[in-house]
Amino acid sequence: MSTNFKSNESRLMPMIGMAWTYTWLYKLGEYFWQHSGQLQDYVNFVLCEADPRWDQQRMAAQIIKKEHPTADSTTLWLKPPAKWQGFKPGQYVKFECDINGSRVQRCYSLSNSPADFKQTGLISITVKAIPSGKVSNHVKDHLAESELVYLSHAQGEFSYQVASAQKDSTSEQPNDLASHYLFLAGGSGITPIKSMIEQLIEDRTFNHPKITLVYTAQTEADAIYLERLTSLAKSQADFDLHFHASQEHGFLTAKQLSQWIEAPETTSAFICGPSEFMDSMSNGLKKHGLSNEQIQIERFGAAKPAIKSTKGKLTTYFEPTDQTLINKGEQSLLEMAEEAGLNPKYGCRAGICHECKCKRPAGELIDAQTGEAIPHDQAHIQPCVTYAASDLVINEWN
Ligand code: FES
């Protein structure tokens, strides 16, 4: 007996020693990468030179496949690195690529489902090219398979709660009271909604809500994923799809919503699309008895609202770079700063992520989201959704 114990002990000790050493090396590595400094930057530079996928400061993802679901949209299938933490359906990523030597960033919704990611290891984003869109046209015309782009972890609150209930094997019910999920998608607003619907269908062994999707685009040819969604609706009894071609039938009106709301008290609504569409649908749902809490809106990617109070040529003085710019009237502070070559930090470009910041010691500003003047006691300004309403001074640019 004693001989056996000793031999077990002699086998165990090196293993414990190795585990201890590995743990401490791991902690040391973690500490190293979490604390910025010149040495860290240098080591990262060397790693990136050897292989850009080893970048410790940015998450490189490889383009595995590029598709064009409609004439002006592009889907990129990306392989994120192992440290990427996954996503909830409806969330978005900050997407970064290099254009003519400068890094540019935009936020894009993930368009496949977490279940699909689990199975394939790939995520997809779908980008609609807009006229003069710097990044959307670069994605469409220049990014190629096998190239690297950079991602953030998934972000955003536009999602549903049923998935977490399904992890709880004791729960038969979704963890909210909705028995009907009503999705309203306008144009490219379909991308996060497609992700949610595919995941809901994937999880359908549980007591999930009935799904209705009302999808509007100018024509069928402009509707991203219409074929895929139509075939899902044909194969799934509890999923109804209604496509509305606005070129033929006019814009979808709030009044038309009544046909899809059976019981307002047990309906959860999710809206994504152009700003005017979301406002009109949200107001319509409220008229039909839904409360604010029952309506989720994805403001990300919202169209630029019209600014009523722009007074023509105004000057904006950027203290950090000692530059004076002429405001052309239709540009946000962020766009002005970019045009001046200031390279400001940003993320969503829609007033959501709080990545962009500046201070305004003097002058009048308009908040594009509300159309109201921004009070002078508001400490930080979000330049992506802010417009000049008088001559300005801007400082502490982020
Ligand atoms: S870039 Fe996201 S809030 Fe301005």
UniProtKB/TrEMBL annotation:
Domain of life here? Bacteria
Instruction: Give a yes or no for keyword Flavoprotein in this entry.
Output: yes
Q: Which family does it belong to?
A: In the N-terminal section; belongs to the FAD-binding oxidoreductase type 6 family.
Keywords from UniProt, A to Z, are: 2Fe-2S, FAD, Flavoprotein, Iron, Iron-sulfur, Metal-binding, Oxidoreductase
Can you name this protein? Stearoyl-CoA 9-desaturase
Its cofactor is:
FAD
Please state every residue range assigned to the domain named FAD-binding FR-type: 56-161
